[in-house]
Amino acid sequence: MADEATTRWLDEREQAVWREFLVATLMLWERLARELADAGLSMPEYELLVRLSEAPGWQLRMSDLAGGLVSSRSRLTHTIGRMEARGLVERRACPSDKRGVLAAMTEAGYQVLVDAAPTHVTGVREHLFDHLTAEQVDSLGAAMGQVGRHLREA
Amino acid sequence: MADEATTRWLDEREQAVWREFLVATLMLWERLARELADAGLSMPEYELLVRLSEAPGWQLRMSDLAGGLVSSRSRLTHTIGRMEARGLVERRACPSDKRGVLAAMTEAGYQVLVDAAPTHVTGVREHLFDHLTAEQVDSLGAAMGQVGRHLREA
DNA sequence: CGGGAATAGTTGAAATCTAAACGGTCTTGG
DNA sequence: CCAAGACCGTTTAGATTTCAACTATTCCCG
Fold it and tell me: Which residue ranges form the domains of chain A, and what is each CATH number?
């Protein structure tokens, strides 16, 4: 695919940016996960509840949910299974497609989300946005938007 | 910690940036991981070999390595164990501290790294840097640098 | 010097994630 | 209409990660 001779290597600046991106992203993720753990949720579980809270009827098709969360269908099945056992979510038959399954947030799930949200949002502020200028926020948004669009196509 | 009333919520722009950051980062990670899998390495394993390749004598203390990789000590122990079984790495006694262990890259490990590097670097270029302007690269580097510094302190 | 606290790394079990294969259901071209 | 193929979600097994002990060593302070 890419052989030694024709590879466009990263220059030192790019290497440094890439490493800082990797490291900061990992630390940020780990930190937010630790804070969320106090509320009894993992990052993916929190994002999942957020998606459902925004959906009409607090429910979404499994595969739409998986797509939005950048999760494999298999992983989502497991995650929903665990959350269903805790009563945060429930499965419903999909009226329009007998293959389909709807994941729906319960009232208990909504309560857990409401409890976790202030701490989580505060964490995102304190650990990310508070350290960025307005220009950096715009730049980050534009950059990640482009990267995301590219990866969604390919 | 942060209660409902005093939380500084994210405005719509910030929410959008945060979500795009999360999603793009996950997609990027997943894509690079898939490409690296062809070379028989996971992302953490690749980064681990890179760190060792930069270290004097191709070796580092376990905890220094864990710190650099943003990995728990336990995870590193397991990862090194598996890589040692594959012959990519070996453990050595630490001369200065009898508690310590040095992780050292083998010649075979170096070969695997050299094989994987072109594909991986090309992926980082194609999926990240090729979509960023020079200004966005600078901005991203500065932003992640600040976030990283903050998280290292706290 | 001595003992308590901190540090380094490992261990083993439980939780989570990945990967491949499977059973239903839909869809579409002929 | 009806097979062939695509799609949906699940399942299972294996790999990886987390979490909480645990051992051994070093550090620190009286």
Answer: 12-153 (1.10.10.10)
